[in-house]
Amino acid sequence: VQLVESGGGSVQAGGSLRLSCAASGLTFSSYHMGWFRQAPGEERQFVAAISYSGGSTNYTDSVKGRFTISKDTDKNTVYLQMNSLKPEDTAVYYCYASPTTIPTIFDAWGQGTQVTVSS
Of 13, 55, 81, 118, which sits most exposed with the smallest number of CB within 10 A? Predict the structure, then answer.
């Protein structure tokens, strides 16, 4: 299983970015997908998730109304559209694929993509 993130970068506060996570080596439609982030000196924290069917999504409170997670089964790709970015969104963002709703360290994780938001 391989997950490859892209789309990170540097933006000013209020800007937007769209992260992508391309998956291979798995039956994409059978896996829950999502994103975590880790800021320097902090633990990795949950950001957003989408169910295997795409019918259910979940977000951490701090990104609700600003971030949108979606998936394209034809492209085996999950997206995280991030709008109204804030400096506190600065982190390395990691996508995951899990057969269960709550991912573990034993599931598939990407290598991470850096998002930097300046004030």
Answer: 55
Is residue 13 within 8 Å of residue 85, measured between CB atoms?
yes
* 100 contact partners, CB below 8 Å, separation of at least 6: 32
The torsion of the CA quartet 89, 91, 96, 102, rounded to 10 degrees, works out to -60
Using CA atoms in the order 109, 7, 63, 57, what is the torsion angle rounded to 10 degrees? -60
Confidence of residue 78 (pLDDT cuts 50, 70, 90): very high
- The β-bridge relationship of strands 45-50 and 32-38 is antiparallel
Short-list 10, 2, 7, 1, CA closest to 90? 10
- Answer for the pair 50, 71: CB distance below 8 angstroms, yes or no: yes
